[in-house]
Structures
1.
Amino acid sequence: MEQTRDSIKDIWGERKPYEGHWPVRVDEKTEEEPDHWVQSACVLCSNGCGMDIGVKDGRIVGVRGRAVDAVNHGRLGPKGLHGWVANNSQDRLTKPLIRRNGKLEEASWDEAMDLMVQRSKDIISKKTALGIGFYTSGQLFLEEYYTLGVLGKAGLGTPHMDGNTRLCTATAAAALKVSFGSDGQPGSYTDLDTTEAILHIGHNIASQQTVLWMRILDRLAGKNPPKLVVIDPRETFTARKATVHLAPRVGTNVPVMNGLLNLIIQAGHINQDFIDAHTIGFEELKEIVSHWSPERVEALTGVPAGKLREAAQILGTAKTLVSTVLQGVYQSMQATAAAVQVNNLHLIRGLIGHPGSGIYQMNGQPTAQNTRECGADGDLPAFRNWGNKAHIEQLATLWNIDSDIIPHWSPPTHAMQIWRYAEKGSINMLWISGTNPAVSLPQLERVRSILQQENLFVVVQDAFMTETAKYADVVLPAAIWGEKTGTFTNVDRTVHISHKAVDPPGEAKPDFEIFLDYARRMDFRDKDGGPLIKWKTPEECFEAWKECTRGRPCDYTGMSYAKLSEGSGIQWPCNEQYPDGKHHLYEDGVFNTNVDYCETYGHDLVTGAAVTQEEYKAKDPKGKAFLKGVDYEPPHEEPDEEYPLWLTTGRLVYHFHTRTKTGRSRQLNEAAPDAFVQVSDEDAARYGLKTGDMVEVASRRGTVTEPVLVGDIEPGLVFIPFHYGYWDEPGRKRAANELTITEWDAVSKQPHYKYAAVRIRKI
Amino acid sequence: MHIGNYIALAHDSEQELTKALRQVADHHKDEPDIEQVCQLLATWSEKHVNELKPFVERYSEEKSDEPERLMQSLFDEPRSGGLALLRDLHDLWLMANEAELCWIVLSQAAQGLHDKELEEACARFRDDTKRQLAFLLTRIKVAAPQTLIAAD
């Protein structure tokens, strides 16, 4: 039993101030002395901390941070130190289940898989594979997503593949594509080692990525600390450390960013040479933001003009700048448009492509980057462009199939549309892997009713009997992290390998093997009659994936399982030119916007209309980045007499996603045992509430009952954490998403979780 | 001159398009993107109607008594059933095309008349109409295969 620090009480641990570099601090938590350690990385947020798994007698007994790792220098956060105990839970799923006479009953793998194959074939015979949809995760491994992507796109030929990454990182990808022509984060975490200033917008990094926040805290504790600008409507842990904290009203990110860009342009704090040489659209952007004086911004957003000026002074004069963006932007009104303004800030200042300056259009989940890269969501593998016939031909050649099989007549179907097709009865089979939409999607009453539709055959592949699995027709028991080998990629493009440490419980199988088994039983073939999917092991799949990425921005061709196992984290692109990976993209100011190379031809940022190949060709940016401005659009639902308060939702430091794993750690669960509704002092006085009182919170879509927490939030706004559902039977409606709205961003299609009109009533 | 007739045609086309976009938005509320974007696009068409008024007045005398046979409604009311959304979007697209063609025709005449103001207005309106068309076409392309092959 070893615990180097109590991460529940002291979330970020002791400071190790910078001494020119970030000192190592190894965090460890084990319940027994391991007989050996197995190399891995953490899967409980998007940071991708290098971690070793401690094993004793075939069981996981603890974890420790990897001192040599590029990302964390040995540190681990509370979720990483405690979440592994979920692997050993007594309530793991260990056998396939099939619904018979309304009840889920144990079955063999053969029975379950044969039933799925029979259903698939029935549907295909009636309406092609347009009747089959996939809803995956941000928590599987690269090899699993690629296998899934190939079986769906080249085997079945369905455009209906997406994942819960739509809920967390779709806007990150969309914003990067809009500005730079493709997905891929321009910077590196090492930028934090030297940067002069940091901007966090809609990103409570202290709770979301605790280890990255430690890196910032250690900078703040050392010499030459960076200045910190935080934009968040709540007084979060992150906001408390800010040099300037702007707390805008819900749904007003675009006016705040326009106001900042306007001040920076007015003050002449721009890099005109960079703008001229490497961007297009500056005059239009300047015109749009010129209408946003600090006073106008204040009137609309509530951010005092003086504070906006202070923030603009920091952001306009710092010689290096790291910006991070997350759900406060991605899940709010004008998500993509607002996220793009952060890219614009860096572009007009020329702060991109060199040490100390980076943009992190953050991911929420550990392997979300791979869902996007591998084509398991609404993207094509290796950032290929669905509108570019040559890219489709590349995939067809690689997979040795006819290009017509790959659905590319319109964009791959986004998650919210997949669920809508299921609701309308045009999708009749939905295969959900590694995620829990019955808690995580908006408007849960609707989601539950879709899952229960007679005309929808639901397959759920998971490690636990989640709220979603309860509605399944077939449940497949899945192996998880630590029980299988694979790779995954974090936000700053760092790829880690996670080796198998222990066997999965009972008959549980890796998602990788389940997908391969389905492909084999469906008898997917290539053009020459050989099996479509030729790999049998994760390593063989990784080798096939490398070929898929050759010459694309996410080039993995210089990596191998051996190389990943020797070190501790390699950034893509990694190829002959960059055998050890590359810290920064766009060092030469040449972006991925060339018409033959880009991942998208772009969209109208307001309507979401797709730009055609011909239109794009007409203004071929030839490697210049796009500066795109937009004006303000108000949220679609605003408080009124009947529902007078704004609701926003978000995370807590001790939990991940829907608590499927973190809720099974006693320590994490005791640290944050239940949902609550946070209200301001002013609203508490108005409604006669004190901390601990129970209130009913109602929106037009549903009602929950929550204990009250008073303070640290703007008046008129209430907050409910999204983690809490029903598997541990709280005895009341409590999931935040009972209240949220079914609607999404026009470009990224990410749902709007950050605003809904609600009312509260003491009970 | 017939230019007054054509301005009236453009005016009425946009009025009808505004109404139709709102009807489709209301009728297809269960498709949130349709509802929200069509409501937004309706405000653009409505703006065109209002901004056309000075030109309607300016050219009110320049109108022949030629019967306005183009003034027919493509769109009675939103539909129900599996094909409904696709057919409604199809009609909106045709109506928006009529509006776009009006801007092209009027812009040609404005150049002939050296009416810079009308020419500039037509260019602005046409940009909006093109964005309306692009949205409708994007959404139609997405809906088409699912509607024609997989819907009940």
Note: The helical segments of chain B are 3-27, 32-58, 84-113, 116-150.
2.
Amino acid sequence: MEVGQPLSVIFWREVTKIQIEHVVEAYEKAINEDKIVGTKCLECKHVAVPPRPICRKCGSSDIEIVEVDPNGELITWTVIFVGPPTYEDRAPYIVGIVELENGERLTGLVDIPANELKYKMKVSATFDPEVKNAARLIWKSSE
Amino acid sequence: MRDVAIIGTGMTKFGNLGRVTSRELVTSAALEAMNDAGVERGDIDAVYLGELSGDIFEHQMHAAPGIPDYLGLENTPSTRVEAACASGGLSVMHSIMAVAGGFYDVVLATGAEKMTNLPTAHVTEALSMCADDIYEVSLGVTFPGAFAMMARAHEMEYGTTPEMRAAVAVKNHKNAMDNPNAQFHKEITIEKVVNSIMVADPLTLYDCSPITDGAAAVVVVPWEDRHKYEGPAVKVRSFAQASDTMSLHDRPVLTGFKTTQIAARNAFERAQLQPKDIDIVEVHDCFTIAEIMAIEDMGFFKKGEGGKVTLDGVTARDGQIPVNVSGGLKAKGHPIGASGVAQVVEITNQLRDRAGPRQVPDVNIGMTQNLGGSGSTIVCHILERGD
């Protein structure tokens, strides 16, 4: 550390750099604790989900990890009949894209009968206790 | 920057080709292209290879040097380009850039994939690795699944029906009847597509392109050198490439590709052309919905009209703008890394009046659109009949 340089500036840069390199780890750590997190841009306040190293709106890398509301609306989905080997036993299974309350979107498995699925139905995030990391996300109906 | 010409084309038969390696397939396609162009082995300055994954399909990484090796061009620079299903298009684009920039005078742009070595579930897994591994693939998203979610969004937004999507498959299977290199020579009906087994709802088996082995190659030279060689030249008017987010959910619009819109617009601007100037198009119909979105996003039709115009025959071989006269990925086959090169092969041959029984009369300007991932990479080329 250079003598005379404000400690807070150096400290802040280091913290930011660490966050940039660990946004995926932050998401995984949170979802393993049944939480969904994003990154909040400290410049323009935009919240991105999943977390991103650089703000898409303003380009700032001054970010912090924040927990987000795990409720949203189903905007599209598919019933997959032919899956990869890791999912072969589960076929047919449903995946869908959900728009969260803050407008950000996430893909997840959908645990709702196919004939009950409808555009913009209310869903909330639940978490598969059998697996780790991003694969835990399962959307269930909250209607 | 120099203007660039394509002077030779070659491709193998597409299909399940049994015990053969991708480097043998590329050698065969490359020799055909070199003979067509009238270039000697010693003329080749560099080789590009578009290939998704020799790693997974053939347990062979570092595939590029295998091409000059088998062609007997030892020590010739070779580079593998990987951009999912757009690998071939980018192989051509980088070859053009290398010649345009004056670094090389004769470049072989090639592409290949040997996919049938693996069972379907493993091919599905390999292809899904082109999506976002953390936020999509870990949750079971497949490529048919990703395009199915877009097909549903397109259906909800514009009323695009299963029959409209099926019309893409029916047209492309019909077109492939006159392409001896196509994987399928079998006409199908709308009923057959709609009633075939579901792969990823709402996409059925016949909405999806097949698993294919094959290779394609073109010879790229400076426009000013075109008369040095035998092959009739086609002029490269422009090319353009764009990228988008790895995850589909990170895009505000799910009914098309901003990448296609940007790449097409830039290609048109660079060529000082408009969609109405294009006489023939090869687009990336990995799924039927992909062709519908492509012809809209490129500006040939208004957003939401792609399905209807296809059903009405506007994009048929004898229609207002013929789309995928080769049979497309859907019926010609989709050996991943070869597909983008094979699109350029088709357009080049159409513009040289060498497309045989499927020749479209009076075509002067043609265009390609090659897509990687769920549209995360797009590359377009515009080509013009030579002198």
Note: Chain B touches chain A at residues 120-122, 124-125, 128, 134-142, 144-145, 148-150, 152-153, 156, 197-203, 247-250, 254 (CB under 8 Å).
